[in-house]
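Hi V.,

You were right to ask for the full record rather than a summary. Here it is.
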Amino acid sequence: MASLPPVVWSDDVLRHEPRTEVWVGVPTPGTEVPDRARVLLEAVTAAGARVVPSSTYDDEMLRRVHDPAMLDHLRTVADDWAAGEYESLVGQDRVVPYVFPTPGMLDGLPFTPPAATHARAGVWCYDTMTLVGPGTWTAARAAVDVTLTAVDLVVGGSPSAYALVRPPGHHATRRAFGGSCYLNNAAVAAEAWRGHGAARVAVVDIDAHHGNGTQAVFWERGDVFYGSLHVDPGAGWFPHFVGHAGERGAGAGDGATYNRPLAPGTGDDGWLAALADVAERAGASGAEALVVSLGVDAAGADPESPLEVSTEGFRAAGEVLAGLGLPTVLVHEGGYDLGRLGRDTVAVLSAFGR
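Predicted structure:
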């Protein structure tokens, strides 16, 4: 059996407990649960990976990625909500927005910061699925530390490292969170690589859903290539409004974004062909370092996507990505079938531990 790259871990990533998601107005059981991380840790440990505890970092790289006011909101809003009467009035002990200051709502009028906590929730969160609880900030912030530790391991000489994180991050934009994501770990990793002197970084996102947050963070930048293969949002899948093939970036980032939307039911052959295309463009971008947004929710029977990729498909994906020959940090994103999550992740990682 091939060895795995070092795995970075913090117990604090377990502290986020969403309990429910509010989808089309109905509370449904949360899928981004702590057991995801437990399953992953058990799988990589059983496969013989070296598990490295995360170090603690300041907010420098995080503030390069996210609006500091959004960070302040995430850090404090759960306490503010608990200090209110939401649980006693309506039985809601998690922060969930109900109104959003969209351009259509304001319609050109000036924005005034709201006084109510339940209104402030919609300023920074763009959906009703991404609830904030008492452990959410701790877990999301720990995921950033895990990611930065993985970058430092590779800068220090390891060819690759795996940041075993949750909650995931690639749907978090500079100024808003959503899609079960709070802080954009992959974007933080790319910024950290830049801070360590990489002139250009490639982010390859193999999660089943388009990483609208990562794309948005680097949309106008030419120093970070973002490439994604994902289920076609035009077929009715999250994030719905972005992730289409014609999106290329803007300004200095024109041409540094590349999307391969895929039809539901694509399967291994089409998925791997799209990955090979994205990887070739990442390699041709002149990148000196690689960040992989490692979602495995493209798996067949995953409740969150219809792409029908097999474990052997994920193993082949690892070979494609490792074949780029770049120092690599793999940052975990999605994957919600607990029966396959660990197996599919180890399949990808096995190509990087040789």
